[in-house]
């Protein structure tokens, strides 16, 4: 993954719990991404735990279409305060 800090691009490493993976199919077979899009229109905070005490502001949603025909949705969350929110809200 590439990221930019000020004017410098860097290679970022994500730990295993933070990366996007498509799950196994119902038959237990590997699945693979065949399509991807990023939605930056969310206006809903992201809850990080079951009791709702950890929330982050709205963030981009990465949607991945897999080889078994399932659309998977992942929140692209950053915990770094210097990262700006890139979501753009649609006007009605």
Low-confidence stretches: none
How many strand units?
7
Helix content: under 10%
Overall number of domains = 1
Report how far the terminal alpha carbons are from each other.
34 Å
Mean pLDDT: 87
Computed CA radius of gyration, to the nearest angstrom? 15 Å
Strand content: 25-35%
Silhouette:
globular
The side-by-side strand order for the widest beta sheet comes to 3-6-7
The helix-and-strand class reads mainly beta
Number of helices: 0
Order of helices and strands: EEEEEEE
Largest sheet: 3 strands, antiparallel
Description:
There is one protein chain. By secondary structure, the protein is mainly beta. It has one domain. The strands form three sheets. It has a three-stranded antiparallel sheet, with no helix packed on it. Strands 1-2 form a two-stranded antiparallel ribbon. A two-stranded antiparallel sheet has the order 4-5.
Main attributes of the structure:
single chain, 92 residues, mainly beta, three-stranded antiparallel β-sheet, two-stranded antiparallel sheet, 7 strands
Brief overview:
InterPro entries: WD40/YVTN_repeat-like_dom_sf. The chain is mainly beta. The protein contains no helices and seven strands.
SSE diagram, text form:
Blueprint: E1 2-5, E2 8-11, E3 33-39, E4 46-47, E5 55-56, E6 61-66, E7 71-75
Antiparallel strand pairs: 1-2, 3-6, 4-5, 6-7
């Amino acid at each position: 993954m590439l990221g930019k800090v000020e004017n410098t691009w860097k290679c970022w490493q994500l730990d295993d719990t933070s990366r996007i993976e498509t799950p196994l199919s119902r038959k237990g077979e590997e699945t693979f991404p065949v399509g991807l899009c990023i939605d930056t229109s969310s206006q809903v905070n992201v809850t990080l735990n079951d009791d709702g005490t950890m929330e982050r502001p709205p963030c981009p949603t990465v949607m991945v279409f897999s080889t078994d025909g399932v659309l998977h949705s992942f929140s692209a969350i950053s915990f770094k305060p210097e990262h700006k929110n890139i979501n753009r809200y649609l006007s009605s």
